[in-house]
Amino acid sequence: MTAPLDLLDLDPSLTEEERQVRDVVRQLVDDRVRPHVADWYEEGRAPARELAREFGKLGLLGMHLTGYGCAGASAVAYGLACQELEAADSGVRSLVSVQGSLAMYAIWRYGSEEQKQRWLPSMATGEAIGCFGLTEPDHGSDPASMATRARRDGDDWVLSGGKMWITNAPIADVAVIWARTDAGVRGFAVPMDTPGVTAREIRRKMSLRASVTGEIVLDDVRLPANAQLPEAVGLKAPLSCLTEARYGIVWGAVGAARDCLETALAYSTTRTQFGRPLAGFQLTQAKLADMAVELVKGQLLALHLGRLADAGRLRPEQVSVGKLNNVREALAIARQCRTILGANGVSGEYPVMRHANNLESVLTYEGTSEIHQLVVGQRLTGLSAFA
């Protein structure tokens, strides 16, 4: 029997391998994450290193990359994994996305063979944790204005500056740091135990509390010449990494929305008011129907983008369409599901408010909705409105 939320029978359109990946990840989060994530969220902590090693055993870290211990999975399979991870919690999916689609991808795509051999195998197993240092305290949506600098001193590089809102930073072994040089923006693989590198955990977050977020300070950090990612030339390099991460968000947001809707559907069919289940009222059914339609549209969009990626035809503005739509609709679904649960919707006993709070961060990171609107607008008009 088709699951109630699979209104368009999308499951048969997946390959057997894709379904197996989805089901294995779903079982993992059911066993390892769901029983504990509400406590992690409330306490503002998560066993990130332990989770990374468990994800590494299943080949989830950098799973869409090839070689160096990476699984070489399809884009759709990776997307389905992100969907199941974020159905548990956005912070858990962020751990995997930052590790694989930002830090590992940057080294895999732009690093030297020496850098790849040094970092990627241990990152694929989760023994080494990576982070991605692009966002700065005063430069979020405008990375072209970054203040972090790298200057030559003999054969060495010396980095100075700061990065903010960096997932995994306080526990990372390596940071991919982007800095301005006399020759433009360049990337560097920076071991976090290098003298002059400090990371401070950001506390009092109201969102992504089951994720470790930090600030990185670079105080005249001296690096050898081979720390530079040799193929990373210009701002297009870090932006291409963001495109990789945004693709995972397209799927992940759908997972968070699905979990909210499954929760609201189960609640409304068992919660009785005025002598009958909430789901028996027209207004409740209208809410459920509208949300289910938006959910399946988001799933269709994610699947289409995944097939384009696997065919080598996915363009950055298409990923912006997916990120803009799916995160926006997922947040609307979470808020609407909260209304169905009434006062229970704000309780940590249910995942809905946690998802809604997390999605507020997802709405912002890897490009705000406004940035993606401008990306799509530029594609439509041929005119840049960024400046």
TrEMBL record:
Top-level division of the source organism's lineage: Bacteria
Keyword S-adenosyl-L-methionine among record annotations: no
GO MF term list: fatty-acyl-CoA binding; flavin adenine dinucleotide binding; glutaryl-CoA dehydrogenase activity
The Acyl-CoA oxidase/dehydrogenase middle domain, residue ranges: 131-221
Residue span, Acyl-CoA dehydrogenase/oxidase N-terminal domain: 15-127
Keywords carried by this UniProt record: FAD, Flavoprotein, Oxidoreductase, Transit peptide
GO biological process: fatty acid beta-oxidation using acyl-CoA dehydrogenase; fatty-acyl-CoA biosynthetic process
Domain Acyl-CoA dehydrogenase/oxidase C-terminal: 234-380
Pfam families reported for this sequence: Acyl-CoA_dh_1, Acyl-CoA_dh_M, Acyl-CoA_dh_N
Cofactor(s) the protein needs: FAD
Similarity comment text for this entry: Belongs to the acyl-CoA dehydrogenase family.
Listed PANTHER family: GLUTARYL-COA DEHYDROGENASE, MITOCHONDRIAL (PTHR42807:SF1)
Protein name (record): Glutaryl-CoA dehydrogenase
